[in-house]
């Protein structure tokens, strides 16, 4: 599995820890935006990671900013992206299992570092339940995204 990751200045607090965690789990990690550049905008990180996931270059993405909210709004503008802000492990796992979310957004200013790592683990450990009501619902989201609903 390959995971692209990006952050803004606030997200740099967790970037190294997240990368280390994924490497230890055997996950190939690509840092696309490290938030250290002066004047960088969270949208730049969100679009870079979103494009990587939507194109299939990466299987999943991780975005870290102050709250996770701006990143999720921006990333979700890219066709094929289902980015979810998660502040707990249950939501992180379920968004993969039920919503087929492909990008995790975490707020470094609202979630403590240890919990953030647990959220990352939960997100990476989940996989989408194909068939049944969850796939039907995700297909409706995709249809709406394609203008067919």
Notes on the protein architecture:
The protein has helices at 12-24, 42-55, 69-75, 89-97, 113-125, 132-145; strands spanning 2-7, 28-33, 60-65, 83-85, 103-107. The protein is built from 6 helices and 5 strands, in the order βαβαβαβαβαα. It has 149 residues and is α/β, with parallel strands linked by helices. The longest helix is centred in the first third of the chain and has 14 residues, at 42-55. The protein is 47% helix and 17% strand. It is globular. It has one domain (2-145): Ribose 5-phosphate Isomerase B, Chain: A. Strands 2-1-3-5-4 form a 5-stranded parallel sheet, with helices on both faces.
Briefly characterize the structure.
This protein is an alpha/beta fold. Helices cover 47% and strands 17% of the residues.
Summary keywords:
149 residues; alpha/beta; Ribose 5-phosphate Isomerase B, Chain: A; 5-stranded parallel beta sheet; globular
